[in-house]
Amino acid sequence: MTADKGQFLAMARARAIFRKADLRRAVEAVIAAGQTVARVEVDPNGKIVIVTAGEPERREGNEWDHV
User: Fold this and answer.
1) For residues 18 and 27, is the Cβ–Cβ distance under 8 A?
2) Would 10 be classed as within a structural domain?
3) What is the spatial distance between Cα 67 and Cα 7, in angstroms, rounded to a whole number?
4) Is residue 67 a part of any domain in this protein?
5) How many other C-beta atoms can be found within 10 angstroms of the C-beta atom of residue 27?
């Protein structure tokens, strides 16, 4: 936005929902757990989702699987 005579009006920034340090801590925790980070997602609400690379989870069979 501009004011008269070409001066710019200062606009306040919204407070960050998450910080870089939050993301770094989360990624470092995954790495410390021995996992490889494949992708990191941050939704508009600030929820951090870390997707790991590796073998898919193994599901044990259920007695009802073959009924």
Assistant:
1) no
2) no
3) 75
4) no
5) 14
Q: Which domain holds residue 36?
A: 16-53
For residue 64, being part of any structural domain is answered with: no
Structure tokens belonging to residue 12: 């306040």
Supply φ then ψ for residue 51, to 5 degrees: -100, 130
Is 23 among the domain residues?
yes
| Token pair listed for 28 | 């470092």
pTM reported for the whole predicted model: 0.58
* pLDDT tens readout for residues 22-61: 999 999 999 999 999 999 999 988 899 999 997 656 667 7
Q: Where are the beta strands (DSSP E) in the chain?
A: 36-42, 48-53
Tally of domains within the chain: 1
